[in-house]
Amino acid sequence: MQALTTEQIRAVIARGKLRDNIFKAMGIFCLSLALIVIVALIADMVMKGSERFTLDFFLNFASRRATQAGILSAWVGSLLVMLVTALAAVPLGVAAGLYLEEYAKRNWLTNVIEINISNLAAVPSIVYGLLALGIFVYQFGFGQSILSAGLTLALLILPIIIVSTREAIRAIPAMIREGSMAVGATRWQTCRYHIVPYAMPGILTGVIIGLARAIGETAPIITIGALTFIAFLPPAPFMGEPAAGLFDWVFAPFTVMPIQIFNWTSRPDPAFEINAAAAGFVLMAMVLSMNAVAIWLRYKMRKNIKW
């Protein structure tokens, strides 16, 4: 084989650098284009809905008059549904991921479970809505309530939390487990005091991605019977006459932000488009706030971790 001359080697390196620069330029162009589209959409929402960013907009119920309509029942409903979703999905998802990664034996049954979990993450959300309609609404008798909605969305994001938990646990170095067990710790103590705390930043990332997806879902919520027009709030615990119970609010009818936005965009009156733009920006702000809290928690936890 003939050896390459210095000039040929330089030419090969130059061609490689040229390809790298072309690929880098293409990546920057695609990223810039995506950012421009996002900024344009956000700016359009802000400009259209800026006149509705008032206290009354957040404290008023839905109305047939666009100028008097608000999102009180929608944002309260979204927060309550997300609360039920988080309480149902996060402990179960983290526990399932921990079991599959640290305790489950590697056999055909485990492989089948892993494949099904991965496949469930890609199932359309409307399928979860139909499943919840038959099980939670009719079979268990929860009705068209906040509880049914929260459990439906919990099923929707459960595969995401399980997969992200397993990936976060896999990233923990094996020496952490070996060192813990070498000093006499049990498997549970190793998971409780080492594996889960070290993996928590990655677990939080998966949780917040799942909740961010859930808060914007519309199809499964419509399927189980969310109201498109509601002018009351769920009963507060120990309030009213007679006094409501501690958990009466979970069985109350509800609406959420995506449903309210969908309702307004379907109205023929152009004034409702302004309300929809304002509500869309509020929904986006809620998602960004959730992400900000998760990033802050992840930063604090990483600072406290000592390898």
3D structure, described in words:
- The structure is a single chain.
- 72% of the residues lie in helices and 0% in strands.
- It is mainly α.
- It contains eleven helices and no strands.
Topology summary:
Blueprint lengths: L5 H44 L5 H5 L12 H32 L4 H13 L4 H15 L6 H25 L3 H9 L4 H29 L3 H5 L33 H9 L5 H34 L3
Brief rundown of the structure:
Helices cover 72% and strands 0% of the residues. The chain has 307 residues and is an all-alpha fold.
Features:
11 helices; 307 residues; MetI-like fold; mainly alpha
End-to-end Cα distance, whole Å, is 50 Å
The CATH topology of the largest domain is what? MetI-like fold
How is the biggest beta sheet arranged?
A: none
Q: How many separate domains make up the residues?
A: 2
**What's the shape?**
globular
> What fraction of residues sit in β-strands?
under 5%
> What structural class is derived from the secondary structure elements?
mainly alpha
Radius of gyration: 25 Å
Helix content: over 70%
